[in-house]
Design brief:
- By secondary structure, the chain is an alpha/beta fold.
- The chain has one domain: NAD(P)-binding Rossmann-like Domain (Rossmann fold, 3-Layer(aba) Sandwich).
- It has 9 helices and 7 strands, in the order βαβαβαβαβααβαααβ.
- The protein has a 7-stranded parallel sheet with strand order 3-2-1-4-5-6-7, with helices on both faces.
- The longest helix is centred in the middle third of the chain and has 29 residues.
- The mean pLDDT is about 95.
Length: about 250
C-alpha cells in the first residue's frame, strides 16, 4: 500500500482484543503502523495480533494483562520498546464500566469501573510519555464517551471515570506540546457490536433509549471511531490538541 498515513509509526492500542479497540488496531495497521494489541484474554488477544499481520502485512505483537496495575503497564511498554525501540501512538481504549443505576452500584462495581477506565489510561500515559518526550514526538488518543455530555441513563459511575479520561487531555496537551506531543479524546455514543448486544439481551428497552437519542438512528460502527483515531494519529492533525471530538451521530451537538 502506498501513501500510508502512519508508515513507520509504532502504536499501542489498549483493550484491543475486540470491539472498538480491535477496529482501531486494524485501522492503524492498514495505514502502516506497527501495533501492539492488548487485552486480558490471551487467546483472543493473540488472535487479533495474528489477524492484523494476515490482513495488513504489518508487524503486530500482543500483551496480556490488567492495565489498571502499574507493573503490568510497565511490562507492556517494555514489550513495545524491546521489539520496536519506540512508541509513537498511544490509544487508551481499555475500559468497560459496570452499567447500573447509581444506587445499585457497590464498592466493588464502582472500583471496577474506575480501574478499567481511569487507571488504565493514567498508568499508560505515565509510562509511555517519557519515551515520547525523549523522541520529541507522540500522539495520545483517549477513547472517551458521549455519555459524559448527554447524561445517559445508568451511566453516572461510568461517566465519573470517563470524565477523567476527557479532562486529562487539556493538561497533557498543554504540558507536552513543546515536545511535539498532542493529546485528544474521541467520544463515541453507543457502539454497535457484542458489548451493546450483551446489554440488548438483558434489557432491549434500555438499548432502545440509548439509540433513540442518536438522530441517525443507530449506534456507531467501530470502524467509524477507528477512522477518527487514524486521523488524529496522522500528520493531518498536527494542530489539534487538547480536544474532545464527538463521533456520535448527533447525540449531542454544539
Amino acid at each position: 500500500m502506498t501513501n500510508q498515513l502512519l508508515e513507520g509509526k509504532v502504536a499501542i492500542v489498549t483493550g484491543s482484543s475486540r470491539g472498538i479497540g480491535k477496529a482501531i488496531a486494524i485501522g492503524l495497521a492498514q495505514q502502516g503502523a506497527k501495533v501492539l494489541v492488548t487485552g486480558t484474554n490471551a487467546e483472543r488477544t493473540q488472535a487479533v495480533a495474528d489477524e492484523i499481520v494476515q490482513q495488513t502485512g504489518q508487524e503486530s505483537a500482543y500483551f496480556v494483562g490488567d492495565l489498571s496495575q502499574e507493573e503490568n503497564v510497565i511490562a507492556m511498554v517494555e514489550t513495545v520498546i524491546d521489539k520496536w525501540d519506540k512508541v509513537d501512538i498511544l490509544v487508551n481504549n481499555a475500559g468497560g464500566g459496570v452499567i447500573l443505576p447509581f444506587l445499585e452500584q457497590t464498592s466493588e462495581t464502582l472500583k471496577t469501573t474506575i480501574d478499567r477506565n481511569l487507571w488504565t489510561m493514567l498508568w499508560s500515559c505515565h509510562k509511555v510519555l517519557p519515551y515520547m518526550v525523549q523522541q520529541n514526538f507522540g500522539r495520545i488518543i483517549n477513547i472517551g464517551a458521549d455519555s459524559v455530555r448527554n447524561g445517559l441513563w445508568d451511566h453516572a459511575a461510568y461517566n465519573a471515570a470517563k470524565g477523567g479520561v476527557h479532562a486529562i487531555v487539556s493538561g497533557l496537551g498543554r504540558e507536552f506540546a513543546k515536545n511535539n506531543i498532542t493529546a485528544n479524546v474521541i467520544a463515541p455514543p453507543a457502539v454497535e457490536g457484542e458489548l451493546l448486544d450483551d446489554i440488548r439481551d438483558r434489557d432491549t428497552q434500555l438499548v432502545d433509549r440509548y439509540i433513540d437519542i442518536i438522530p441517525i438512528g443507530r449506534g456507531a460502527y467501530p470502524e467509524e471511531v477507528a477512522d477518527a483515531v487514524v486521523f488524529l494519529a496522522s500528520d493531518k492533525a498536527t494542530f489539534i490538541n487538547g480536544q474532545v471530538i464527538s463521533v456520535n451521530g448527533g447525540s449531542t451537538m454544539q
